[in-house]
Amino acid sequence: MELTMSQRARYARNIAVSEIGEEGQQKLLKSSVLIFGAGGLGSPAALYLAAAGVGTIGIVDSDSVDLSNLQRQIIHRMSSLSRPKTRSAAEALSALNPFVRTVLYQKRADGDSITDILRDRPWDFILDCTDNYPTKFLINDACVREKKPFCHAGFLRFAGQAMTYVPGKGPCLRCLFGGVPPEERSPSPAKFGVVGAVCGIFGSIEAAEAIKYIIGKGELLTGKLLTADALTMTFRKIAIPRDPDCPACGGRQE
Ligand SMILES: [Zn+2]
């Protein structure tokens, strides 16, 4: 299938990137990415993926837009206050790129719903854009079980982190953290805050991981935890080994 004139114009800067080209753009147009959370991370991630021409974007979120969200959740507008975040996000994506199909899950990801959501479509890549550890581990365990690649990211104050899991190719979140850290060791952004721009950095990193995975180019954050502290502008990549006894991925890798 050839790109149309309009697609060539819209995606000209993608196509000009030697690693993407027309072939990579075709892959993006055919791809589907599922995003858990239309908040601080999900906002920039979804906007960049829609702009890049990812064909189908799934969004899972049960919340409505609150005034306190607008400090960082840049996909939402004042006009969306009190409306479901999924609807608000889908409208923003459609306004940006009406050729992107959105699939909305106006529900909480829990032990009952997550497998259905993951199996609902042949998702190519998953983004964990949630803000709490129980949901992050739920996504991790479900993606490991369903053999789905995903990018994890988290943030607090001026800092953030990201890592990508690819089945058979590296550690998962449980290899890194074991289990859900106790509340006193996992301070919440709701209490301690976060700088919106830091969400922007890490949501963009997640979108870049998805794009690289889809076009099959570059190096992913597989087996590497990227940490960034925007207060000192220190970026680090820490090698993370796989735990052969990991309760999620141990013994499952080829
Ligand atoms: Zn693991």
What can you tell me about this protein's structure?
The protein is α/β, with parallel strands linked by helices and 254 residues long. The chain has a single domain (15-239), classed as Rossmann fold. The chain is 37% helix and 18% strand. The chain contains 10 helices and 8 strands. α4 (42-52) packs parallel to α5 (85-96) and α4 (42-52) packs parallel to α10 (196-215). The chain starts with a helix and ends in a 15-residue tail after the last strand. Zinc ion is lined by residues 171-172, 174-175, 243, 246, 248-249.
List keywords for this structure.
254 residues; alpha/beta; Rossmann fold; 8-stranded mixed sheet; 10 helices; globular; binds zinc ion
CATH topology-level fold name = Rossmann fold
Number of helices: 10
Major sheet size, sense and barrel closure: 8 strands, mixed
Q: Please mark out the parts with pLDDT under 50 across 5 or more consecutive residues, or reply none.
A: none
Query: What bound compounds does this protein have?
Result: zinc ion
Walk across the major sheet and give the strand order. Answer: 3-2-1-4-5-6-7-8
Oligomer: single chain
**What is the CATH level 1 assignment?**
Alpha Beta
Beta fraction:
15-25%
Order of helices and strands: HHHEHEHEHEHEEHHHEE
Class inferred from helices and paired strands: alpha/beta
Number of strand elements? 8
CATH homology superfamily: NAD(P)-binding Rossmann-like Domain
- Rg over alpha carbons: 17 Å
Summarize model confidence as the mean pLDDT: 95
- End-to-end C-alpha gap: 34 Å
In CATH, the architecture is 3-Layer(aba) Sandwich
**Outline:** globular
* Tally of discrete structural domains: 1
Q: What is the helix content?
A: 25-40%
